[in-house]
Amino acid sequence: MVRQKIVLRFPPNIVEEPILYMLIKDYKLMVNILRADINPRKEGRLMMEISGDEADYQKAMSWLKQKGLTVMNLEQQIIWRSDRCTHCGACTVICPTAALNFKRPEMTVRFEEDKCIICELCLRACPARAMETLVDNANFR
Amino acid sequence: MSFSKTIEEINEKIKKGKAVVFTAEEVIDLVDEKGLSEATAMVDVVTTGTFGPMCSSGLFMNLGHPQPRIKFNEAYLNGVPAYAGVAAVDLYLGATSLPPADPANRNYPGDFLYGGGHVIEDLVAGKAVRLEAASYGTDCYPRKKVDTMITLAEINEATLFNPRNAYQNYNVAVNVSDKTIYTYMGILKPKTGNANYSSAGQLSPLFNDPYMKTIGIGTRIFLGGGIGYVTWHGTQHNPTVERAENGTPKYPAGTLAVIGDLKQMQPQWLRGLSFLGYGATMQVGIGIPIPVLNEEIMGYCAVRDQDICAPIVDYSKAYPQREPGNLGLVTYADLKSGEIIIKGKKVPTASLSSYAGAREIASTLKAWIEKGEFSLTVPAAALPSAGSGIKLNTMPQHDPEEGEEQ
Predict the structure, then answer these.
(1) Residue B189 CB neighbours (<10 A)
(2) Which of A15, A134, B2, B196 is most buried, most CB within 10 Å of its CB?
(3) What is the pTM of this model?
């Protein structure tokens, strides 16, 4: 059994193919979509949690890469720049999953990547702009 | 009032490296444990700190003359306009100044990624900043244009002068409307989805000297990681609001105007900020030492979060429309717990002022004093306090068409 949060990036020519249907039908995987940005004739991005049999999962990942999709672990998507963080805590009430939360009694902000669902609300909620994303968002605005 | 000492006596001890210094946080437990009179005899100085967004901040500069000379009519630093309505190559750059090309809220809510506070942070960090200035040319100042790179080290003066800092208490902002709003108190979610506050509470300078009995004009302070001074009471200074029994005001009250040489400050404590949908500003680190002159002063310094309260104010309507009243008072202990109750509803809280930063500032100032590097000052004059009769005015509204009596 494997359970993994991943980000799929689709080249524009694949956006119109039923990738998810194939993952479920051919590879018997359970998918839970966290976020999707899919536009016709543009690059697409799908963030989801996948679970299923280890062997099926590996086969599915190879198939996705063969189709020309990029697969990345979700944890690597949002970066907390601790050098820019002033530990005010403004982000903690905006983050919907408490991935950004306040450590008490230290009163410091911490970022628990495994809870992050890449909603990106923190990017603009942080006054010191200490949150960054590796993904170029230009295509999704 | 059995025990008392003077600032001169405390400075003698500082000079010898023998001063006993506690932060405003540490001193709470000490007073609890030893009692007020023993703690007063033992401690010489209590250090405070605050590290929050302070919009009324800015930088006076003298850039030196080019050849031929110029008298700035307008000037931009990294595209951010500075005030040029002073002498030839003097400028004042405000923390909230925005480039004319910034889309502001035309694409609501605007990002405000770079403003005056960011320029100041870049200068303190030693980065080169582009100066573009224009003039009409005069006989004595013939040059009409400059476009050059400057650094903090190369310009003559860089004097941080903040007309209003270190607010004594502040509103707790909520949004009772049905849509998200974007304010200088951060993003406020609809239906009282969060409550944002902005004070270091028990560590904040003016909560530890609520009547400004030791902090006055000329008080030497920690400012932006270097040394600065209190120059005056801050703008909007309102020390006559209702107070709790311990002397702390229940509403936003006193403020300080402060000054210091930017060249000895640190970028860690002067940070450009971008408030979504509101604008750019600067987070300023301030720490003020309080001489423990007697038991009364020590009593003020021992104030704790559960004994300081702030008003909950609706920023969707009551605040912008200047409607009086609030949604109740809440203590800083409750605010810092992460959750408060407003009209029966649990509401998560967040701070805009960094308590961890305030703590580090108070500790840094403590270390400076312990090492004998920082001595205390006797104020040249007191600041207006609770008995001053100050009344905060609203903007005068008179019809310009009516004209003046001839």
Answers:
(1) 18
(2) B196
(3) 0.92
Q: Is B189 on the interface with A (CB under 8 A)?
A: yes
Say if the Cβ atoms of B52 and A88 lie within 8 Å. Answer: yes
Cβ–Cβ under 8 Å, residues A20 and A49: no
Name which of A86, A91, A129 is nearest B354 (Cβ-Cβ). A86
Element (H, E) at A57: helix A54-66
Instruction: Give the Cα-Cα-Cα angle B167, B162, B171 (nearest 5 degrees).
Output: 20
Q: What residues of A are in contact with residue B356 (Cβ under 8 Å)?
A: 87, 106-108
Identify the burial level of A48 via C-beta atoms within 10 angstroms of its C-beta, where 0-12 means exposed, 13-18 middle and 19 or more buried: buried
Gap from A45 CA to chain B (nearest CA, Å): 24
A77-140 matches A2-75 in CATH topology: yes
Of A86, A92, A124, the CB nearest to B357: A86
Q: Phi/psi at B181 (nearest 5 deg)? A: -125, 155
- Return all residues near B205 (Cβ < 8 A) that are at least 6 apart: B48, B49, B50, B166, B215, B256, B286, B287, B288, B290
Whose tokens are 């405070």? That residue is B48
CB of A98 within 8 Å of a chain B CB? The answer is no
**Which H/E stretch holds residue B122?**
helix B116-124
DSSP A64-131: HHHTT-EEEEGGGSEEE-TTT-----GGGGT-TTSSEEEETTTTEEEE-GGG-----HHHHH-TT--E
Q: What is chain A's mean pLDDT, rounded? A: 88
Cα B391 from Cα B387, distance rounded (Å): 11
How remote is the C-alpha of B25 from its chain's centroid?
19
CA distance B138 to B151: 27
Q: What's the CATH code, domain A77-140?
A: 3.30.70.20
Q: Please report which confidence band the pLDDT of residue A38 belongs to, taking 50, 70 and 90 as the band edges.
A: confident
Give the C-alpha separation, B265 to B160, whole Å: 9
Note whether B274 contacts A93, CB cutoff 8 Å. Answer: no
Domain boundaries, chain A: 2-75, 77-140
Question: pLDDT tens digits, residue range A62-74?
Answer: 999 998 898 988 7
Catalytic residue list contains B55: no
* Neighbour-count burial for B345-383, b at 16+ CB within 10 Å, e otherwise: eebbbbbbbbbbbbbbbbbbbbebbbeeebbbbebeeeb
Whether residue B186 and residue A125 make contact (CB cut-off 8 A), yes or no, is yes
Q: Is B111 on the interface with A (CB under 8 A)?
A: yes
Residue for token pair 């209003």: B164
**CATH code reported for the domain at A2-75:** 3.30.70.260
Pairwise CB contact (< 8 Å): B186 & A104: no
ipTM, interface predicted TM-score of the complex: 0.93
Q: Is A28 on the interface with B (CB under 8 A)?
A: no
Distance from CA of B89 to the nearest CA of A (A): 31
